[in-house]
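ok new one. same drill as before - structure tokens go in, u give me an amino acid for every spot. 198 of them this time. try not to just spam alanines like last time pls lmao
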């Protein structure tokens, strides 16, 4: 990975110009890397080719680059639909969550959440869809069983591109009473200023 690629970016504003015009529902994002070709390649290898070496590398990069995190009361993985979970064999967000909890003692001691974020229906894969299609595809995609009144919640995912998935999950958690919803992921779509390096 060259100096211009896959550098940690501790910046909560790394969205493309179109996404910046959309109102985010979630409280904030921690994404230490730009979603560049190197990160995209490793994610594809891990998620779709079941390349465990790529997965371990991504988890290590993410864990090592993640600095001080906002205080939260619960850390949950973004759920997959059961069909996609069965086909893929694992949920990458669960793997990332477990890697983070092993590395951050304060998070590992949090009590188990009394609620569950769930996929309410199977959405079409987001790859290849524009921002409007992604939002429409994810409308009502998540539900919450139980209450999360006044909780600060971190939702773990692999990447934030348009923010549609993050917004849909955050909306469900806010509807269940959450006070804050943070998205913690490996990488985020770069701002136009960073796209010359990708």
């Amino acid at each position: 990975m060259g100096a211009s690629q896959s550098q940690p970016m501790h910046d909560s504003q790394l969205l493309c110009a179109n996404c910046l015009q959309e109102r985010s529902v979630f409280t904030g994002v921690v994404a230490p890397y730009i979603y560049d070709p190197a990160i995209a390649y490793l994610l594809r290898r891990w998620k779709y080719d079941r390349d465990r070496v790529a997965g371990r590398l991504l988890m290590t990069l993410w864990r090592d680059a993640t600095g001080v995190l906002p205080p939260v009361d619960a850390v949950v993985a973004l759920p997959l639909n059961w069909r996609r979970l069965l086909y893929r064999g694992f949920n990458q967000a669960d793997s990332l969550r477990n890697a983070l909890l092993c590395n951050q003692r304060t998070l590992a001691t949090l009590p188990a959440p009394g609620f569950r974020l769930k996929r309410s229906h199977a959405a079409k894969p987001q790859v290849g869809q524009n921002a409007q299609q992604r939002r429409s595809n994810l409308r009502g995609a998540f539900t919450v069983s139980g209450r999360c009144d006044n909780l600060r919640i971190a939702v773990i995912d692999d990447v934030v591109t348009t923010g549609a998935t993050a917004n849909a999950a955050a909306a469900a958690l806010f509807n269940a009473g959450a006070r804050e919803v943070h998205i913690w992921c490996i990488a985020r779509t770069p701002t136009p200023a960073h796209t010359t390096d990708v």
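The chain has a mean pLDDT of 81. and btw The domain at 17-197 is CATH 3.40.50 (Rossmann fold).
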